[in-house]
Amino acid sequence: MRSTAIIVTAFALAGCASVAEQSADLAGQRSCCTAMSEFKFVPLPAKGVDVPLFPAYAPVYEFDGRKSYFAPFIVSGSNVRSIDIESDLSGYRDLQFLAPAFLFLDRKHEPLALATPALRYEPPGIIRFGHMEGKVLVPEDAAFMVVLSAPATEAVAVDHPGTSTIFMMQGNIPIVVPHRGKTAVYEPAPTGKLVLTPIARESGSPVR
Asked: Whole-prediction pTM value?
């Protein structure tokens, strides 16, 4: 495994580029394989996993005529019912995010289903920055899962409500000026970092 520092550096470098620049760079990348059966599948970690899809870190494959960085996992025998998704924000003013797609394969590496879950904005909390989040269901007969970027994903517009703040003091009286709310438009990008948390079939709790 590469270090967290390398992942952070790759994330920062990708965030410096526009979506158009990232897409152009991806188009020039060489596909790693001639078939999905050649992917280096690894077991999906029960405690969750960070999935960085960046140049020089993730491989590239042409999925039905469209290139994407990807991460391949084994899900057979894992008792995973669904996967919670968090997609970190990146780019200028953190207005980019990776919208993922999940390609599920059978034991012969043939496609079973392609899921493109809708993501919603989750505001920052005590221990987590603002991010996009969602959920994907795992087919019971899926043996493998490939995480890639979703095709033709629309931008997500989020209304951020305004807050009030003390602007100045007039004697002993505070003058409060409300800030107007604003709408931020988050643009899907071909690179980014995901956090995936598997959920067990029986309990509905994270797999342990």
From this structure: 0.81
